[in-house]
Write a sequence for this structure.
């Protein structure tokens, strides 16, 4: 996703919507991670770390955002 709304000063923020469709055969209880690169001017933050099996995601310096799949209701 690219921001195209002009300059967003530091004292302001905005919310960005991420919309996706997931395959019906994904197993419940699984985590899905979405590595993100956040660029601002010449700077970039890479939120791309995905925890290894058994690793605590809180131990990561720049963790990728993720969602946990829940059983269908």
């Amino acid at each position: 996703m690219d921001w195209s709304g002009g300059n967003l000063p530091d004292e302001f923020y905005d919310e960005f919507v991420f919309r996706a469709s997931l395959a019906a055969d994904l197993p419940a209880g699984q985590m899905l991670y979405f590595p993100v690169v956040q660029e601002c001017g010449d700077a970039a933050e890479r939120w791309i770390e995905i925890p290894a099996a058994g690793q605590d995601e809180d131990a990561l310096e720049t963790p990728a955002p993720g969602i946990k799949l829940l059983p269908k209701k």
Observations:
- The mean pLDDT is 86.
